[in-house]
Amino acid sequence: MAFKKLLASLGAGGASVETVLTEVNVVPGGVVQGEVRIQGGSVNQDIEGLSVGLQAKVEVESGDEEYKQNIEFTKVQLGGAFELQAGAVHAVPFGLEIPWETPVTMIDGQALRGMNIGVTTELAIARAIDSGDLDPINVHPLPAQKAILDAFIQLGFRFKNADMERGHIRGTRQKLPFYQEIEFFPPSQYRGLNQVELSFVADEHAMDVILEMDKKPGLFSEGSDTFRSFQVGLHDFHGTDWAAYLNQWLSEVGSKRNWF
Predict the structure, then answer these.
(1) Residues 59-101 pLDDT 10s
(2) How many CA atoms lie within 13 A of 100 on its CB side?
């Protein structure tokens, strides 16, 4: 029996875990709700812990190398230890808060290429960890974020790519160990401009908006006129014509550099 229990803890005849999300569409600052269903195996097992979290696949630059890394950026324990009887079924509901800084993965109902964020589930069984598959979620922009994104679209910019990079943007309210960059192709009237990159760093009150034109990889050149950072309140963004604001900045920089 002891040998059979060991096999069970390693997955042979042991418990199985399935996570079902109530709603996969969320916004930063919201809550993703779901249920973890644990199905007992052929023997009783000691469950040492159950947790759910959020995970992102992030780009990491190290010297001349670049690779992808899974980073769990929030985690919640669900209950304590218990004995799972053979064949028994446990359903554990949960609500997992979405951090305000969580990158958006959707714009106007379209998935952003390069984004990979979801819910992870871990079941600790007798000193072994059983990690379930990633259950993807769709993170839609906050209204203030959508206003900025809509302004780019209104000006004729086209979405190029999005990624998440490990590191910090200086001078922002960033707390997560990574940030998102959304890249746009410029319309023809901004000739000479290669691309514009956009980052949001939000909390419950406001967000930092970081823009950079023709950015060199890995460098935020705050002293350059091709970099701009400004704050937008999450509830008082309606009074600004963001398309006009962005066009004015782009035009000023472009004329200085004889781009346009």
Answers:
(1) 998 888 899 999 999 999 998 888 889 999 999 999 999 999 9
(2) 14
Say which residue the tokens 């997955």 belong to.
11
Q: Using N-to-C axis directions, what is the helix angle for 242-256 and 143-154, rounded to 10°?
A: 50
CA gap 50, 17 in Å, rounded: 10
What pTM was computed for the model?
A: 0.87
How many residues comprise the chain?
260
Give per-residue pLDDT as tens, 200-252: 999 999 999 999 987 444 444 454 568 889 999 999 999 999 999 999 988 88
234-241 — which CB contacts under 8 Å span 24+ positions? 234/142, 234/143, 234/144, 234/202, 234/204, 234/205, 234/206, 234/207, 235/144, 237/143, 237/144, 237/147, 238/147
DSSP state letters, 19-56: EEES--EE-TT-EEEEEEEEE--SS-EEEEEEEEEEEE
Q: Which of 242, 84, 58, 72 is nearest to 164 (CA)?
A: 58
Q: Are 131 and 11 in contact (CB under 8 A)?
A: no
Question: Each residue of 19-56: pLDDT tens digit?
Answer: 999 999 999 999 999 999 998 888 888 888 999 999 99
